[in-house]
Design brief:
The protein is about 60% helix and about 0% strand. It has about 180 residues and is mainly α.
């Protein structure tokens, strides 16, 4: 499904459905129609996977190979930090402003994500950031410079230029809107 709609539209659809589900849940709590809440919760949880998956996928796609693990790790902090804080903050919020108002307050966050996905998030699916930097046949996956041709490993790049050999990765990206970390 991702090749058809892309990472950006996956995020937009996820944030939009989560926003609508939270608004439906708030309306159900205000009108005391609590039978709607399980359906709103199911829609919210299902589509939350759509918007949250980009938080780790996009850094893994746009970061240079040497920073990919660090970029993905730091992005994952921003996925888990709200979940951790909500355990402590939501009981206080529920008792302070009521459950229905807390749902409306919470709807601000998917609205912010939706606006960011619409106006800021570039489409990164299908962009080639480092296709030429893939390990060569016979190279070690953990240490891509082992087993590669002379002049293409990290320690040989400057020496390779001096010998007239081009580095293995010379084109940074084929996607003009893709950020580079």
């Amino acid at each position: 499904m991702t090749p058809r709609i892309g990472q950006r539209w996956l995020s937009i659809a996820g944030f939009a459905v989560v926003l609508v589900a939270l608004l439906v849940a708030a309306a159900a709590l205000y009108s005391d129609h609590v039978g709607i809440l399980p359906f709103a919760a199911a829609a919210m949880l299902w589509d939350h996977y759509w918007d949250a998956e980009n938080v780790v996928t996009i850094p893994a796609m746009v970061a240079k190979p040497e920073y990919r693990g660090t970029a993905t790790g730091f992005a994952y902090i921003f996925v888990k930090l709200p979940a951790f804080l909500s355990i402590f903050l939501f009981p206080v919020l529920f008792s302070a402003i009521s459950k229905a108002n807390a749902m409306l307050f919470t709807a601000v966050f998917p609205l912010t994500g939706l606006l960011a996905a619409v106006f800021i998030l570039p489409e990164v699916y299908g962009c080639e950031h480092d296709a030429s930097a893939a390990p060569e046949v016979g190279a070690s996956p953990a240490l891509p410079h082992l087993g590669s041709q002379p002049g293409t490993g990290p320690s040989d790049r400057t020496q390779g230029r001096q010998r007239g050999v081009e580095p293995a990765s010379k084109s940074p990206s084929t996607c003009s809107r893709m950020p580079s970390i």
